[in-house]
Every structure is written in C-alpha cells, then in structure tokens.
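Reference record
================
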Amino acid sequence: MRLLLRSQRRFLQHAPWSALTALLGVALGVASIVAVHLISASVERSLAEAQPRHLAGLSHLVSGPGLDAETYFRWRAAWRGADGGAATPVTAMVPLLEGRVRMAGRFALLVGADWLTAPAPAPAAADGAWSVPLPVIAGDALLAGAALGLEPQRPVTVNGRTLSVAGSVGDPQAEVLLADIGLAAELLGSTDDALSQVGLAVRDPWARWRQALDRLMPGISAGLPAAQALPLTALLPGVDADRKWQAVPVAAQRPNAAFARSVLFNLGALGTLALVVAWFLIYQVAVIWLRRQAAVFARLHALGVSRGELRMAFLGILTGLGVLATALGIAIGWPLAGALVRLATQGLPDAAPPLVLDGWLLLKAAGSGLGVCMVGAVAAFARASAPDGWRPTTGWRRLWPMLPGLLVIVGIGVDSSGVTGAFAAIAGLCLLALAAVPPLLAGLRRLSMRAGGPWLLRLALRDVVWYPRVLGVALAALALAVATGIGIGLMVDSFRLDFSRMLTARLAGDLYVSELGDDFQAVERWLGAQPEVRSLRAAGTERVLVSGVAVDLGYAHFDALESARYGHAGALAADQVLLSEGLARQLDVGRGGRISVDGARLKVAGTFPGYGEAVGRALVDAAALPALGRTLRYDRLTVIAGSSAAAGPAPLGALEERLLAVFPGVRVASPQAVRAQSLAIFDRTFAITRALTLLALAVAAVGIYNALTALRLQQAPTLALLHAQGLSRAEAWQIGVLRCAVVGGAAVLVAWPLGVAMAWTLCAVVNPRSFGWTVPLALPAAGWAVPLLLGLATALLAGMLPAPRERGAMHEAA
C-alpha cells in the first residue's frame, strides 16, 4: 500500500499542470451551482416577502355567483361537523371580500377578511414587512401596500371615510388595502352579505418534500406538476354538490410569482450546465491519467496490489481534488453571485436582495464537487478495466438511441409533463447529438486516409481522429457548451424581437398619463383643449373573478386600431373579450370559447402575450361594462399628437411640463421612455443566463486545453522524430493551430443543429409551460454566429497556449 501511495504522489508531482486545470474546471462548475443557488434563494425570499397578506397560509380559493355569508357559514358548519375538521384535509376557512375604492386621488384594491379565522401568518420578513400583528386590522384600521406610499399612524380618506393606517405589508408593487371584512363591506357598499371568495388551507402531504426540494434547488417545484382545481365536495363531502363549486389553487391568483419561480427553475437547469461540462472534463482527465499510469498500475498489480486497491488509490486522488475544487468553487461562487445580481438589478431603485450562505448550499456544493470527481473516476476506471475490444451487445446498441428519443417524444409531446418534461426533452436532444461525436470522428478518420492538400493539414487532421479517447470527451463538452449558447442566444433574441414588436404595437400613443384618480375628467378636458393634442384614448381596469381566478379586466374603446395593438383584426363587439395567453391556458379556453364574467357570457376573440403580468388580463370594449353591471371608471389616458408635433419632441415635452404644472399628482411617460426602460429590464433579466453560458464555455475551454495538452504529451516522441527530419518550430506551431481548428470545427458541426433544436424547444415548449406565452423562433445571425465564433476561438486559444513541461506517458511507464 505504501508503494501504491508513493506512486500516486509521484504521478501528481510529474503532472501538476493537468491537475491544476482539472481543479479549475471543476471549481468553475461548482461556482456555477453556488452562484445560481445563492441568487435563487435570494429571489425565493423576495417572493415569500411579497406574498399577499390575505393569502398567506391559504392554498385554495372558492368563488362564484351567489357566494354569500350564509353559504360560507353552511360550509363552515359542515367542516366543523366532520370530527371537528379532522376528517377533511381543510385546516382553515377564511371569508374574503374585495373591490376597488378611491383614496388619495386614485384607485386601490380593498381586501377584507375575517382575520380571526385566518391560518397562522408566515414568519416576519427580514425587513419587518409582515411584522404588524393581525389584531390591529380590526375597527377602522387598515394595512396598506407599500406601493401606496401611505405613512403609518396617519389618517387616509377611503370612499369619503377617514381611516387610520396601521402599517404597510406585502408586495411593494401592489396597490392594496387590507381591512376587517365588516369595514370592507361598509366601504364597498355591500348590503347583501355577498362574498368575493372563501379561502381554504388544504393539507398537502407532499408539502415537506416540496420544501426540502426547494431548499436543495430553489424553484425546482416549478418543474413539478402544478396544483389542480378541486371540487369542493372532495374537500367538504356533502356540501352543495349540485352547484359544482371549485377550489382553485392560490397560485392561480399570482401568475407573476409562478413566472418568477419558472425563471428560477430554468436558471437552475442552466446553472447545472457548467457542472455537466465539468463532469466531461474530469472524466477526460481521469481517462488520460489512467492511460499515463497504465504501465505503473500493471507493474504494481504484478507485485501484488489488487485492482480494488488500485481503484481506491485512484479514487482517492480525484476525491482530494474534489475537496479542493469544492472549497475553491464556493470562494468563486459567492462574489460571482454578487456580480450577477448587481448586473441584473443595475439601475433599479430597490436594493439587490441579500445573499445568505446556508447549510443546504454547502451540502449541495460538496455533493457537486465530490460527486463529479468520484463519478468521473469510477466511470473512467471501469472503462479502463473493460476487456480489450469489448463492446455492448447488439440489443444494447439498438436500445441506447431509443432512450434519448423517448425522452424527446414524451417531454415535447406530453404537455402534462410540464417544465421537467421539456428539459428532459432537451437532455434527450443533447444525448442524441453527443452520440454523433464518435461517428463524426470515425468519418473524419476515413477522410484523413484519402484526403489530399497540404501535409501539415493532413497531419493535424490525423492527430485529432487517431486519438478519439483523448479528444472525444472534450469535443463533446465543447459542443454541448456551444450548443447551449446557441439555444439560449436564439431564444433570448427571438424573445426580445417579439417583445420589441409588442412594444411597437402597443406604444401607439405619443404620451401616457396615469394615476389620475378624481382628476380624470379635469385632465381630459384640459388635454383636449391643447393645440398639440389630436385625440385622446381613455382606459380603465377592474378586478374581477373568472372561474375563481383573479383577473384584471381592462376596458377602452376597442375599435380596429386599438384591437390591432393586441394582434386582433377588427373592432371588439360588446360580447367579445381578448385574453392574455397565460390566462387562457389557466382557464383552458381558446379562441371561440366562452368565459363568464359577473354572470355575463363573453366570447374569446383572441389572445395576446402577457409577458410576466402580475395578474391575468382580459380586455373588453367599454360598451361591455354596463352589461357586466359595472360603472366606467377610467384611470389613464393615451395622448395622440397632432401635426404640430411633426417638428420633433419639443412640443410634447412642453405639453408634459404644462400638464405637470397644472396637475402635479399625475404620472406622465413617453413611449420612448417606456420602451427604453422595458428593454433595459429585459436585457438585465437575461444577463445572468448569458453569463452562466459563458461560464460553461470557460469550463469547456479548460477541458479542450487539457485534452490538447495530453495529446501533445502523447505525441512528444512523434514530434521529436519530425523535428529530426527537418520540421521547423513554425511548422509545429501551424500543426497545433490547424489541429485546434479541426477540433473547433467538429464541435461547431455538432453544436449548430443541436443549438437550433434547443432554441425551438425553449421557445415552443419550455416558454409556454413556464411563462404562459409562445415565442416564434427567429434565427438572427448574432444569436448563433457569436456562440459558434466563441467556440472556435475557445479551441484555437486552448491550442495556442503554451504546453506545460510534464513528463509524458513514456516516462511515466519507466
């Protein structure tokens, strides 16, 4: 055993450079995992703090026509009568009433609840956002959303009644007021004991497992099947079976949270890319090290060292490397996460969320670093120990390509497989593409036997194809990294192009005026009298419930011009509605279907992309509001400039200044400013994904460099013979560059079709399942040319870097 340990120590002394590059590659893979975990955990905390206070602790909501206090108390009696609630999965039941009210010159959403029946509140956030105790909402006290900007302990007038503000809660973007349900009924003028919803807390037997998975990989539960609506009779047997009440998951009320969690899932899947490439790297290093120690291991085995002892010694070397790589990866991942967060939040008013190092992260990092090294070592040793000439049986060779193909078919074809199925399909595509690497090298080998041209090129080509075990794994890793760069790049470019088109269509005005409140009519008259203004378009929003789902019902005069902004040809009739794609998927309704809004049946005329909307949106013509029993309450105006604005932006700039001077409380924005801000936020959102793709490419570069270095060492005797025959140093350098070009070209040949297939899957499958809208795939040159050029440059750079002076295989055998 002592002789075995000395041989391994001697080997490391003779191969410090390859050990260093392997250490760096695995450390970068671990750093990617660490950075993604830190970012995702930070976003998860922000989502938890933004949970609407009246929904905290609830899992399902029940709503529908005829829902009133009598129905609620009948349900509550049935619930309590079932063994005191123990015989049902329901653990809490809360009545809710909501509506829009006027306050401080604008509209806000008022939510009333019976807080005494509410489940236990979530833990207070780090900033104290939920630290206000519930009893203070009794009486004439209110809790206000932070976006309203109301100061605690100050009076506020709501629908003509003066009330006190006890504190602020919830999502800083939500303009919401929370009150006791009795006070809410008085403010909303509800005299028939009507309720908007009844909230339920339903026991989830998988909750602990979901929480554990999310702690291990934040956002992973977004890839699990989504919670489904349940018939109320399944939760409270025997109640109103004829009414077919449905309990809708609370997640349906928060599509923006689902959007954020889907981003986390996608980010986590992308973050593992660098680790997968690192596995290719460490496997390649293990194969090369085993080949270099083959003679030494053979002699040790002849001296009595068993194969098990040889395997354990080799595994020990790579385990030690994994320990060092884990520590280095954590040290790199922490500042990397901070840099990526600053990059994504640059220019935003809110501070970047804090990064917290926890035990789960340390366990995950250790498992990643050690796991990659140990699995790579075991796989390489098993391959090296296989009998010469051994190949899988014919049955396995035929079955192997079917498994990735099955992943692709099921992941894409079965919509219920969700985001997990979509990424399984992408994994299947990668396996199919990487399976093409050995045939590709075999084809290049046959080509090299009969190829003409310069002898330096032929020699470089033969260097690559005659050593597939040395270069094959590194080539596959580079192809995977480049393909991911192409797939992500094309998806982001397609998304940005579609998003830009949407902005162009919807930002059809010249000036946008919002937060009008009680000044709407005065602002409308003032603007109508200005010479720069050709016309005005008014719009408003109401919060309604559709099949138990909270929906923002937008209304305006939807003539053909207004409808065209949302991709619909022709004016909207009074019985028609446009739905955001996410809402349409949520309601499982398409074009030509019908939805019920306040008892009125509306026909779905079409859909439009929602792009991360906070709440599902439905659009109707203003003429439909009376049929819905609602009053028109416009709260924003779009200004269409006349011909006097043709000289440039100065007239509208002057109009904005005059408007703010007369009505200082309104908000004014130009389409140019809205467009620039929207695209800037978009670019920051995807900056992290691009950075992680580059990180995977960096790991692949380390792998290519390591493989080419091993190839140089293995060819040292051949190169010495060529030098003796007159090969100059310049010609040797040319062979190295041409060899790298062949490697890069082979990787690009595999990466381009794989990248396009990944991009299509991301746009047509992952995007609808994750975010609720489809993105038409575009193939702009920048989306695929830049990753291809980076891949070629990576291979060339790896080949042109100086090779270390390590002892070659021949010396190791001595």
Observations:
- The longest helix spans residues 729-771.
